[in-house]
Design a protein that fits this description.
The complex is a heterodimer of chains A (about 210) and B (about 150). Chain A is built from 2 helices and 16 strands. Chain A is mainly beta. In chain A, strands 3, 4, 6, 7 and 8 form a 5-stranded antiparallel sheet that branches. Chain B contains 6 helices and no strands. Chain B has helices at about 10-25, 50-65, 75-100, 105-120, 125-135, 135-145. Chain B is globular and about 40 Å long.
């Protein structure tokens, strides 16, 4: 059947939202259209000549579509596109800008675990994993994706409110010469210099040093 | 020994990121890539990396930057800053090549010929703008293979 005459307003702000390379296409409904709008989605690998339909996102009424599986090769770049339908009419295809999973993803903060002695605390940081299709699939740490990755660590003495910052490359840190019987709170951030990617700081993990023997 | 050329990837990345959307929006052709198809840079053998890098620096200096003038002075400034970084890196790599084994294997020579063929398949301005829009593909490959 021939293409419908497309006079429906277009979907707006079609873009990828990516966290740890979980790449989800988002858009806003066409202006002035109430309920009942349906959408279909297609995507393309940049440099390859064909658009590929996403069956799971055909005739959907939600305004997002998970394309993580289709865009999981971060050595490629991608485009995605959305078309709206309502009461027999349709919109144009509306495209994203070129999406580069490697540079356009956001990274979650590292997981922080802390332990203490009377005069020191030990911090172990774990980088989040890259998105994967299923729990059975082999895990890939974002450390493998961004080998030059570093950590910024903040340590706060809750009593004196004194704060130290450390920039480290490996994932463990021991902070010595601390006060016994005192609570210290640790927060950490991932920092990738190039491409420039910074996670937010993790929530604080507090621990008390042991009391003096 | 290997050729190791220092260049400020962070500066180049920042410069490119600032103009990426502008430059890529000037390239309407989704179905053709200069650098990544049909062969991917990521498939280049490590022994050929030095030579391909030199070829690509020369390609960008001689065939890309000079054909990418825009009506936007901010974009033009960023382009010339990136171009200067490439120019100095190419000079260093060239000197290094003369003293070192920076030889392209047959496979990589074919790869670079394909890049030139992709480039020559378009008019100069479109090819140059598309190549500039693919700078992150080159930077991603260079960083990954550091």
């Amino acid at each position: 059947s021939g293409e419908l005459y497309c006079s429906l307003p277009n979907p707006r702000n079609v873009h990828f939202e990516s966290i740890n390379m979980k790449n989800v296409l988002h858009w806003s409904a066409p202006e002035g259209t109430g309920d009942g709008v349906l959408y279909k989605v297609k995507y393309a690998v940049y440099g390859v000549g064909k658009w590929i339909r996403k069956p799971e996102c055909r005739n959907i009424n939600r305004t997002w579509c998970d394309l993580s599986s289709e865009t999981s090769d971060y050595e490629e770049q991608y485009y995605a596109s959305v078309k709206a339908f309502l009461n027999g009419s349709c919109s144009d295809w509306m495209e994203t800008t070129r999406f580069n999973p490697l540079t356009d993803t956001k990274i979650d903060p590292p997981m922080v675990s802390v332990s203490s002695t009377d005069k020191s605390i030990s911090i172990i940081l774990t980088v989040p994993e890259k998105w994967k299709r299923s729990p059975e699939e082999e895990s890939v740490s974002l450390l493998q994706v961004y080998p030059g990755l570093q950590y910024n660590v903040s340590v706060l003495n809750k009593k004196t409110k004194k704060r130290w910052f450390f920039s480290i490359s490996n994932n463990t840190l021991v902070v010595p010469w601390l006060e016994p019987g005192t609570t210290y709170c640790v927060s950490a951030q991932i920092h990738v210099t190039t491409p420039l990617l910074d996670s937010s700081f993790s929530k604080e993990h507090c621990i008390a040093t042991l009391k003096d023997k | 020994g290997a050729c190791r050329v220092s260049m400020s990837m962070t500066e180049i990345r920042a410069g490119f990121t600032a103009i990426k959307a502008n430059i890529q929006s000037r390239d309407p052709i989704r179905t053709l890539s200069i650098l990544s198809h049909p062969h991917s840079l990521h498939k280049v053998k490590s022994s050929d990396r030095c030579c391909i890098t030199h070829h690509l620096f020369t390609f960008y200096v001689d065939k890309v930057f000079k054909h990418c003038r825009t009506e936007d002075s901010f974009v033009n400034r960023k382009i010339s800053s990136i171009a200067n970084s490439f120019l100095s890196a190419r000079r260093k790599l060239g000197q290094c090549r003369e003293q070192n084994n920076c030889v392209c294997g047959e496979e990589s020579t074919e790869k670079f010929k394909q890049i030139l063929a992709n480039y020559e398949g378009l008019n100069v301005t479109s090819a140059a703008m598309k190549s500039l829009g693919e700078l992150d593909i080159l930077l991603d490959w260079m960083e990954k293979s550091r």
